[in-house]
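RETRY 2/3 - previous attempt timed out on the joint model. Re-submitting the same 1992-residue input unchanged.
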Amino acid sequence: MNQDLLLKLLQEVAAGTRSVPDASRQLEHLACQDIGYAQVDHHRSLRKGFPEVIYGEGKTAEQIAGIMECMISQENVVLATRVDAGKAQSLLTRFPSAQYHAEARMLVWRSAPLPAAGRGTILVIAAGTSDLPVAMEAYITAQAMGNRVEQLIDVGVAGIHRLFRHREMLEAARVLVVVAGMEGALPSVVAGMVSRPVIAVPTSIGYGVSLGGLTALFAMLNSCSSNVAVVNIDNGFGAGYVAAMINRA
Amino acid sequence: MNQDLLLKLLQEVAAGTRSVPDASRQLEHLACQDIGYAQVDHHRSLRKGFPEVIYGEGKTAEQIAGIMECMISQENVVLATRVDAGKAQSLLTRFPSAQYHAEARMLVWRSAPLPAAGRGTILVIAAGTSDLPVAMEAYITAQAMGNRVEQLIDVGVAGIHRLFRHREMLEAARVLVVVAGMEGALPSVVAGMVSRPVIAVPTSIGYGVSLGGLTALFAMLNSCSSNVAVVNIDNGFGAGYVAAMINRA
Amino acid sequence: MNQDLLLKLLQEVAAGTRSVPDASRQLEHLACQDIGYAQVDHHRSLRKGFPEVIYGEGKTAEQIAGIMECMISQENVVLATRVDAGKAQSLLTRFPSAQYHAEARMLVWRSAPLPAAGRGTILVIAAGTSDLPVAMEAYITAQAMGNRVEQLIDVGVAGIHRLFRHREMLEAARVLVVVAGMEGALPSVVAGMVSRPVIAVPTSIGYGVSLGGLTALFAMLNSCSSNVAVVNIDNGFGAGYVAAMINRA
Amino acid sequence: MNQDLLLKLLQEVAAGTRSVPDASRQLEHLACQDIGYAQVDHHRSLRKGFPEVIYGEGKTAEQIAGIMECMISQENVVLATRVDAGKAQSLLTRFPSAQYHAEARMLVWRSAPLPAAGRGTILVIAAGTSDLPVAMEAYITAQAMGNRVEQLIDVGVAGIHRLFRHREMLEAARVLVVVAGMEGALPSVVAGMVSRPVIAVPTSIGYGVSLGGLTALFAMLNSCSSNVAVVNIDNGFGAGYVAAMINRA
Amino acid sequence: MNQDLLLKLLQEVAAGTRSVPDASRQLEHLACQDIGYAQVDHHRSLRKGFPEVIYGEGKTAEQIAGIMECMISQENVVLATRVDAGKAQSLLTRFPSAQYHAEARMLVWRSAPLPAAGRGTILVIAAGTSDLPVAMEAYITAQAMGNRVEQLIDVGVAGIHRLFRHREMLEAARVLVVVAGMEGALPSVVAGMVSRPVIAVPTSIGYGVSLGGLTALFAMLNSCSSNVAVVNIDNGFGAGYVAAMINRA
Amino acid sequence: MNQDLLLKLLQEVAAGTRSVPDASRQLEHLACQDIGYAQVDHHRSLRKGFPEVIYGEGKTAEQIAGIMECMISQENVVLATRVDAGKAQSLLTRFPSAQYHAEARMLVWRSAPLPAAGRGTILVIAAGTSDLPVAMEAYITAQAMGNRVEQLIDVGVAGIHRLFRHREMLEAARVLVVVAGMEGALPSVVAGMVSRPVIAVPTSIGYGVSLGGLTALFAMLNSCSSNVAVVNIDNGFGAGYVAAMINRA
Amino acid sequence: MNQDLLLKLLQEVAAGTRSVPDASRQLEHLACQDIGYAQVDHHRSLRKGFPEVIYGEGKTAEQIAGIMECMISQENVVLATRVDAGKAQSLLTRFPSAQYHAEARMLVWRSAPLPAAGRGTILVIAAGTSDLPVAMEAYITAQAMGNRVEQLIDVGVAGIHRLFRHREMLEAARVLVVVAGMEGALPSVVAGMVSRPVIAVPTSIGYGVSLGGLTALFAMLNSCSSNVAVVNIDNGFGAGYVAAMINRA
Amino acid sequence: MNQDLLLKLLQEVAAGTRSVPDASRQLEHLACQDIGYAQVDHHRSLRKGFPEVIYGEGKTAEQIAGIMECMISQENVVLATRVDAGKAQSLLTRFPSAQYHAEARMLVWRSAPLPAAGRGTILVIAAGTSDLPVAMEAYITAQAMGNRVEQLIDVGVAGIHRLFRHREMLEAARVLVVVAGMEGALPSVVAGMVSRPVIAVPTSIGYGVSLGGLTALFAMLNSCSSNVAVVNIDNGFGAGYVAAMINRA
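RETRY 2/3 succeeded.
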């Protein structure tokens, strides 16, 4: 339940347009609601400015639906990540107004257009074409949290002039999310060119000693550019979320 | 060379109070200055809003001094990290106005008091007493970059009520740096309580399967709280730097 | 063969109600019974208070059935773990009175209701919905060993107030089993709140540097709370077993 | 502050033998006491039945002394682990009634003989002579927590008859702590012989692929005996602590 | 080509019963025969006393058949390991006199019964039922190399009396092959009981920190019993081969 | 766009046989061409002497086709690696003049026969039959880059005389590519026999502690022969490419 | 106590030349003797044909002396490994007839010349000069166990003709111990040339990805030659011991 | 013994200016010379075009001197690497005409100025000041092998314009050696700019997840630029050697 909805509810009670028992029913699960296999944290929007996001991996479509069901009554936006095509189909049948982003494997439900929440632009950069799904997860997340987001794909360091052609775009961004697999060198180079925070996302793209993304991760943590912070391998969602937090007005 | 110094120089030339040859001499190393064992990047202040920071490990005191020497003529603040007590002594003799922070192993030289650069407060939290040196590195860095910084030490999760007593301090911060070794659980808990970005710093404190900080690092990257980004093990400097970038007005 | 069955047998011989050759046949495999692909350890119930438990992974349904067959004649409870749905179906046809717990992938056969064996309550806590299968394995095991067991699901550290609402339940338990994946922080927090032993179970839930549960495991072994001992990744069975051993009257 | 001291204090106030301001001063730091570099958790004895234990590694002798100073006023026993001989000497000068156990590198301070707290005997077993320091840490810890403790040294699996000679001692114990380096096989063998919980402690003894104790740790976590739970490498203290928790009357 | 066949050929030439051109054709590939995708090493029997063994993994059935074809003309025994059921079927059609051991995934072709080659008995021991396939690979290999082989299955350390019942069998063996997964403790215990060399084979049986057999491997390499040497994970073939080399008369 | 094509274009403009607008259209994407999911680097042939090579893994057939489409207009050779049989079929339909090498999983398109580019012979050696696919990737790559290439398969160190028989072939090569899995010993032995650079390629062939090729990789990096440099696991393409660079006339 | 000494003692008792109480005193510690910090396993000579060997690492000189003292009364040879120069000096003062091998860091005490125990020659080969200490440990051990031992130093694969010059020496050996660091390729090459068992010993010689000997170890375990078994990194003692077991008449 | 010296010797014999016995003495150790702790490979110059290089680590000054002694009689250049200052001093006393390069820790002895051996320039680039020692090892090695060598220090990717200023120097080189620690990104960027082979050298400079150079190594092996081959961590010598081989006329 976010601050706006909470205020509205209390104002209705004050105005007598909503009965006390009704408001009470609405608020009784504010701390969290126990639905057996999950304790839905309705308080999170108040505490963190954005509702709980459902991590779809390892949950059945039924469990995801159950959690969505009980969030929809209290929130105006619900996100689910790591939702594969099969689960998505079943969820879209149940929540037809939701939108599924296949490449990012995300499901977004909104009760209304989101108000702008960010101060500047968030720029999502991907080193290669194969890094697109992770970049899209960051893109959709940041956008769903009310930000203006732009993207730049396939500007890896093997042909670094491709990056330099977009120098203005880089300098205009308020926060940058840089996604790369293999040797993970792109965040260092980008961060050396801007005066803004860079959130680096290693991907599992590569083979041999890419070690499922560990090499890119470790390279990014060792960046010789100081304005770089890192999230988990393939964690586009986390990068988009942190970028939105930084950009919050 | 930062923007202020550059503008002043050009205005002096325009006003005729500085000769063209003199300005030219001043500017000829703007891209970078080659001193044999280093290419000092004078352009960095203009590009990134803060001059190059000297990484002291693996450099001799003479090399550090040489780089400082050639930065001082162009910058109003110079930082050196990972400077041990021995090198510090020799550098203080040469730069008596510099200040050495023994616990953080940092040397700070300033030509003038720093103007405030941040929008809010940066809060540095350390899980245990043994994490102090890393926390101090973050503290000194953020402070030297013109921020208001506060700290909270020894509030690890084994006695989590110690943390909850400072809830207001947590909620008041604009950015939080959370430093922890061993199981690295503190950033997750802190991030779950606030609506601001958390920069997590794993430390090498612990033994056995703390693996020199790898366990804390991996735990932080796997945080179930989404507003967490991470820097390298024991990298207090990087955390302070990123926090300052985020907090920049 | 457990102590009760052994005593009964000897009493029957003493009373002349069972012939010596018959008793001898019954006892000849007491040390262990060789069935070619296995040496069934009938002595284990006497030695350890609970019969051998069959580890189903890497055994064919026929091998599991063969071992069960020869245990059933000597024990009043038989457990098999890591039994997938296919093998379960074939085993249930052969042992219709057995019960299959699909989520925990366990098969339990009992000749009679189990007498209570524990002194207090064992509480099984899971950090997230995705940790349920491992938590259920601990739950079923401890229950099958004669204990009163309770559970608490989805109380991870990203919304730690969900845990604090159940403080009394935590304090009432005699032993706690805490199951968590990702950063594995929950056992540290729980252990900091109680004066009882906590058995921590890391799960393979997570991605990237969760490293198949290694990160959660290492975090738990590095717990800054001292009343924590740990079992292997996804080893719900072992946690339930140790908890039952601790709780034994 | 433990329950006994708290009750006594409140009774004195009730009886009028202690003034309210005095009691208040005594209680004001109950939650925790901030001494700059540490937040001493005086509430821990109440919450967990035993006061905070000071981890000496990475703390100066002055810091340890400062924490001891402020604990001694509220507790009747104070433990510090990982205290090397140098720090110990300086601390003994300041706290002459404390006792230093050089092999275990522990410092124990007591205001009075400890009342017995355990139900049965805790048996500490070490595989080899080189594992003695870790075994002693477990021994001293369990003893300081009010338990009857016995030990058995150098009974590794290369000559397993040495272990079998002490079968009665093994069967008599209520909890067993088994310490081993190298291949870490001893806990499996011991656990296969008893019906009680075994706390296994891997040590860093060995070379090559002993990997600083990782091999022994992993072997213990993979034990084919189910009544084994494990603590961190060389963590004799943790093993003694958990054993005491299990044995608590 | 082994020594016997070579001698026979040369004697035939000497006796005039085989023409020189014919013998020459037979010998021209003695060093090795190039069949494009392989250089078949016919000289190996002479050099090492046993012909090259075909490693089936990563080779097509056609490639295996091609190599067998060209070995059969020169050897009296041909072994292929890691041959799955599909390839086996196709190979048996082509070489109907060969024998396929499904559990061991081995194919054995013989032109005649093998003469006894070993001095004593080789004993193959497996810790658990799940280790059978690897144990069988060792068994078949040692047998095909002309040795008397015995086996003992499911005598792991969780019920160590099962092993002690076969003490005489252990003491009678000339070489012992001990196969174990999980914590890999069995070779240490067995080696402590005998005065003969023990070849330890780690298996990939286990989960979590069994790490695909690495834990068992490392434990075996760290054995506190000195008469243990180790082969690669799941390398039953290598163990059987080395055992045969040791046992060679 | 390579140097020849560029010169021809400019000469046509100079000669008036090509209009300026037409040439301009041709050159406008010289730096790179943005096709949404990729920034095709047409400048690479000029800069590096060979056009960008398409890494097929993680790209859809449509994406590969799109990139090929826009390269074909500017280059006379296009390579795609890691193209599986399914994608290849779809691409061959679209580019019928391309050639698919199934074993090497490579697609090669040429507008004309390639002019010879190398000074000497490149020799590709594979330790075993199972290493063929990687060796073929190196072979096809070097050949497509205009070199004379030879190969030698199955000459591993277990029968080292097989290698010595080809000593002249080894000594005649200008550059050697040596491919090996398992213990990766072959490059050291080969490099000890020649006075030319050896490019070593570890493969993922093996099991157990071959660790997916890491062991072979590390062995090659530790070669006691000094004329060895190494590429990533299974990176036949990279080895062929570097060899071609070294051999360039 | 070895078989000869035991027989002699019993014969003296039978002959009346030794009193029963005296013999009893001698035999009472046969199973093992408890000296507090060690349980000396006097039974080992009978069981394994060679007395317990003292592992000196992590034991004080006093502890080593104490164990030697109580072995000398019952054995005719005592070995201690990993004894540094300091401890050696103190032990030689106490046991002047012992011999210290500085390079191998071993102490050998004998009551009489050792009878020959082996059937053939054991050959110890070292790849490089830096591997000498480990090779010497194998050499001294095998020799002290009654074997004829020869050695061959610095014949690594970078100049493989150095090895081939000694082909006869290789073929004459009954067992071969091959010691190598770095890429650990030598055992594969040697094993490919002989028909005898090869015990491979990886050493920690090397840097970078030699990983303290792990690379050599893994390479040896992946040997494409089948007659190779491996011991722990730097474990010259174990290799010598296993070789002696294999060579035992 | 190199080709020139060998030819001269044979010509002297032919001309009668050198006696046959004298020449024979000179040549008798051509294959290799056994000096107990080493088999000096005099044949290497003939075979590989450059004599054996002495690896100083783990050898005593006496052993290095012994090997030098016996090489000097047959070669006109002798190199020793990893020679610390202490050993160097003792060696310089014995070989006063040798030259010690302290930063590179190399000793070079020459009987005469070296003839030029390379076709073009070798360029050694280092990312940071701390990488200098490794870069110098490459520099000295390539120079001692008769090449023209240039260097460029401190041009890491955090300020990538420093590199671009030297574009012509990069394009002029025939082979490039690129040395970098931390995230190891520089070789990818450099290789993307040139059409020549790049030998990448990871260094152990960095902390935390630089993992002693593993991260830089893995990043380089995963380079998205194809003209990169890699040597072991800190192996400046190997890089210089391979570069010289590539550049050989």
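Chains B and E do not touch (no CB pair under 8 Å). Closing ticket.
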